[in-house]
Amino acid sequence: MRSTAKLTVALAAVSLGSVALVGCSSGNGGNAGPECEGSWTLAAMEADGEQITESDIEDMKQSGVDLGEAFTLNLTDDGKAVLSVFDQPSEGTWVAKDGNCEITIEGEAISAPIEDGQLVLAVDGSSISFKRAE
């Protein structure tokens, strides 16, 4: 993928992160499942049919742009969620439900499955995949 396309996808993901995930409100909180709980960093993203893969993120890191650290998600054992997009945190709540991580955002729960060890947030055809922080 050309670097211009990668930048476009990154900007779209920033929009996704800051529009869809800003303003997380407190929800039902509570029992945290160990499969969801923990610190997560960006693994991949897709928006408008464009993808940024884990390999692309590593290449960008080598060029001085660390998207992995720019997008983080922390799910604590007390049911609190903090999503940070370029150091702009948004707070919310989460619970483990039906094998997924449900994260309450603007009064609505987004069901985020864990697929192949990655937590996947999908909104309006765009997705952000997180891997466990090292």
Describe this structure in words.
The chain is of the alpha+beta class and 134 residues long. The protein has one domain: Lipocalin. Helices cover 23% and strands 46% of the residues. The chain contains three helices and nine strands. It has an eight-stranded antiparallel barrel with strand order 1-3-4-5-6-7-8-9. Strand 6 and strand 7 form a beta hairpin. The chain is globular. It starts with a helix and ends with a strand.
What is the CATH top level name?
Mainly Beta
How far is it from the N-terminal to the C-terminal residue, by CA?
27 Å
What overall form do the CA principal axes indicate?
A: globular
CATH structural architecture: Beta Barrel
Task: Please state the CA-atom Rg, rounded to the nearest Å.
Answer: 14 Å
Remind me, CATH topology?
A: Lipocalin
- Please give the domain count: 1
Derived from helix and strand composition plus strand pairing, the structural class reads alpha+beta
**Unreliable stretches covering 5 or more consecutive residues:** 1-32
Give the % helix. Answer: 10-25%
* Largest sheet, spatial ordering of strands: 1-3-4-5-6-7-8-9
Chain-averaged pLDDT: 77
Helix and strand pattern: HEEHHEEEEEEE
Beta percentage is over 45%
